[in-house]
Amino acid sequence: MARKKVKLQWIMNDTARRTTYKKRVKSLMKKVMELSTLCGVEACAIVYSPYDPQPEVWASPMEAVRVIGEFKCRPDQTKKRLDQEIYTRERVAKAKEQVVKQQKKNMRMEMQNLMDQCLAGVQGLQHLNIKELSDLTWSIDDRLKAINHQMEFFHHPAPQPGATAAPVAVPVAQNTHLEVALESLENQILLDTAPMPRDSLFSVAYRGGQDMMLPGLYDHYEDPSFWGPPFFP
Amino acid sequence: MARKKVKLQWIMNDTARRTTYKKRVKSLMKKVMELSTLCGVEACAIVYSPYDPQPEVWASPMEAVRVIGEFKCRPDQTKKRLDQEIYTRERVAKAKEQVVKQQKKNMRMEMQNLMDQCLAGVQGLQHLNIKELSDLTWSIDDRLKAINHQMEFFHHPAPQPGATAAPVAVPVAQNTHLEVALESLENQILLDTAPMPRDSLFSVAYRGGQDMMLPGLYDHYEDPSFWGPPFFP
DNA sequence: AGCGCTATCATTAGCCG
DNA sequence: GCGGCTAATGATAGCGC
What we know:
The structure is a homodimer of 233-residue chains.
Chain A: H1 14-39, E1 42-48, E2 56-58, H2 61-72, H3 75-124, H4 130-155, H5 177-193, H6 219-222
Antiparallel strand pairs in A: 1-2
The structure holds a DNA duplex (17 and 17 nucleotides).
Subcellular location (chains A, B): Nucleus
Keywords (chains A, B): DNA-binding, Nucleus, Transcription, Transcription regulation
Protein name (chains A, B): MADS-box domain-containing protein
């Protein structure tokens, strides 16, 4: 948050990531300490990283274990939270599914249309002059390019990981543009869920993401010129 | 840290203390989330307060318990684990990348070839008789179907186990065939790594997957009849 | 790699309705 | 007590050494 605003996503550059980690973990611990002091509350933070052999901990490891012990001894009230969490997750999943479904549908429609155009071209060619033939060829070519572009959106790794340190349980895979878009979507939903405060685990965590934007998934489709005029109406 | 700089000490005024707590705990959790996201590290924070009936926690309670458990057990062996984990993760990532790359390449080749056939058909149609025209049409249609099938492989949700049993921290999303395949691949690799059992975080979690098979990703391509004879040699 | 610098961005103390 | 506002302090990304 300085010379430039950084996107809330994994930092690709190794040295930059390490530097950021060092700086941020330090000030995070300071924040924990301040909170604890100013408000007289018990708090602890634990950060595992590939950069430190030992996890960063505040307050002292012993203190942490004590705080944690307290935390673990509340199985019943935790349930509520878990339920909420699951609910939110389901909402996220549903929204994602919708996007993927739509995207899929659009892709298939693109292909089908292109094929139709090809077939129509093949079958109706006898009646075309050179100009029309040339136009047809170019049109098909353009649409092929467009489809390839869409394929990229699905499968091309977005500018991301060299591959070392992703959060443990999340499968380490190259993020595609689609995945990046889905992640943004997720953040937005979690943000929406925020208003119901104490019951939501995420009520706080994701507030910061509110100025992130969901990449325009359908820009392509909303552009009427994308498909061009029908060739064989 | 605003209109006036406050001393780092317990705030005596009750309402002020509560207000400060609310604001600060919120941004603290945000910071934890940012650190975790930006640097790809595991982190958790727990804050007990008289203001909330439940402790504020990040990330989810379950996640926290997991992170904490890790912390409590091993003060010094932690490093070994991290190294091993990173190594395994890199291996998995690499293998997955290979598969995705190949799959992508194949897809694109299919499409390109089909387009070529279409274009060739369009341009060479004048010299074809009815029989050849019909064959061409059917060939294109077949290949379209094949491509659609491939699309399914990429994007269609695989028949999945009753949606509940997913490992905790894995975002609940519809798995595509590709994703299922990749997961199997990951399991196989993790299985290979397993022989040194309790040192890997994954050694247990994924054991259940060992009888899954990696679907024959390239069956389609190994079948020479898949492309059919070239139409315009 | 790590440290210091500083322009920018982010947090927040105090106030108001 | 809460949410919004703004001035002021705090955090930090990018750079140069």
